[in-house]
Amino acid sequence: MKTSRQRKILEIISKQAVETQEDLASALKKSGFKVTQATISRDIKELGLIKIPAENNASYYSPGIERPVSRIEGHLKRLFRDSVVSMDSSENLIIIKTHPGGAQAVASAIDQAGWQEIIGTVGGDDTILVIVKPKRATADVLNRFEELNLKKG
Questions:
Q1: Which of 30, 57, 111, 133 is the most exposed place for a label (fewest CB within 10 A)?
Q2: What would the pLDDT profile of 102-140 be if each residue is shown by its tens digit?
Q3: Distance CA 67, CA 21 (A)
Q4: Under 8 Å CB-to-CB from 49, ≥6 apart: which residues?
Q5: What are the beta bridge partners of residue 131?
């Protein structure tokens, strides 16, 4: 839900000038998303949206500069250390088990990392399905995940 909502936010701000969080919430509700102001605020921060000045002292949301890879990787590493319980693979599929409620955040972070070998994720409550292409890259991706999951200490 979060990934599709954030995708919709980017679509909305690319098609229309959105000046306030309330305007964004209204546009999302028209598209079938139930959101709170706190959710909108978090999404704006996570997407790195910035306000661009416009005429008549107005300003509107715009995609900011891409988040640095090091920040994305650091976020992914923290999520793995805090949430991931186990991992396994078969063919070109990787299954990641998390603590209850942790899968959506980890799946979203994997998607944001933009690893070329990963063509998509599906996150449930405590399980993530990661689809890898080509199949021969599965072991390498699993090794990278295991490195992220190394506990401190």
A1: 57
A2: 898 899 889 888 888 999 999 999 999 999 999 999 999
A3: 21
A4: 9, 13, 61, 62, 63, 64
A5: 93, 120
Please state, in angstroms and as integers, the Cα–Cα distance from residue 152 to each residue in 19, 58, 85, 111, following that order. 43, 47, 15, 24
Check the CA dihedral 74-76-79-83 and report its sign: negative
Residues in the chain: 153
pLDDT tens-digit readout, 54-93: 778 888 988 875 555 566 788 888 889 999 999 999 999 9
96, β-bridge pairs: 87, 128
Helix H or strand E segment including 89: strand 84-90
Rounded to two decimals, the pTM is 0.57
Token pair, residue 138, equals 């599965």
